[in-house]
Amino acid sequence: MRTLKPNNRLSQDQLIKNCKKKLPKAQAELYNRYSSVLFSVCLKYAPNYAEAEDILQDAFMTIFDKVSQYKNKGSFEGWLKRVVINTALQRYRKPGVFNLVNEENIKEVEVEIEEESIPLDFLLKIIQELPDRYRMVFNLYVMDGHSHKEISTLLTISQGTSKSNLARARGILKEKIEMSQFNPRSKSHIQ
Questions:
Q1: What is the pLDDT along the chain (191 residues), one digit of tens a residue?
Q2: CATH 3.40.50.10490 assigned to 12-92
Q3: CA-based, 20 to 30 A from 127: which of 1, 2, 95, 119?
Q4: What is the DSSP code (8-state) at residue 21?
């Protein structure tokens, strides 16, 4: 007989074991326990809320199918996030989504903002509005800390394309921030 914690939640180890046995109650508990954290990861990669929901559902189908591959090494939550990121990347990894460019055309654009002056929901919104190819590279590089070499492998693009897409993403974000009400120098900020 399994041991329940006082709050009737399974331990993480027991939850994983039960999910490996494909027990529906364990799968439901896993979903309830981690869906909000994983949804925030989906929002980083999706262009909108509905796409993020689709990515989350696809990711959980993969998680339930592949949980037996988790070997209790490293963080389980980290493993779940990796599945979500891979699901998002597969969704947008299509021929022609990423532009090929020459490295000579790349202009690094620095986006300098005061983090406290711009609401997080606004930043998330403008990141979500980026074209897929720019948003993916931006999130992988800035948010997740991948190198251009790693990104080129994950997205099957050249390192130059990764650098270019990052520069373009930063340029678009900088322009949107400069034109927003959160920039003290923008016209929309002056009343």
A1: 444 444 578 899 999 999 999 999 999 999 999 999 999 999 888 888 899 999 999 999 999 999 999 988 889 999 999 999 989 888 876 544 443 333 333 333 334 444 446 787 788 888 889 998 899 899 899 888 899 999 888 888 899 999 999 999 999 998 888 888 776 555 544 43
A2: no
A3: 95
A4: T
Instruction: State the Cα–Cα distance between residues 163 and 152, nearest whole angstrom.
Output: 9
Q: 177-182 — which CB contacts under 8 Å span 24+ positions?
A: 177/111, 177/113, 177/118, 177/126, 180/118, 180/122, 182/117, 182/118, 182/119, 182/122
User: CA angle, corner 83, sides to 79 and 85, nearest 5?
Assistant: 115
Give the residue range(s) of CATH 1.10.1740.10 domains in the chain: 12-92
If one looks up domain 103-189 in CATH, what number appears?
Answer: 1.10.10.10
User: Which pLDDT score, from 0 to 100, does residue 94 have?
Assistant: 54
**154 vs 132: CA distance, rounded Å:** 14
Give the residue range(s) of CATH 1.10.10.10 domains in the chain.
103-189
In the chain, the amino acid numbered 21 is: K
Question: Which residue's structure tokens are 């969704």?
Answer: 91
Distance CA 44, CA 134 (A): 12
| Residue 15 CB neighbour total at 10 angstroms | 21
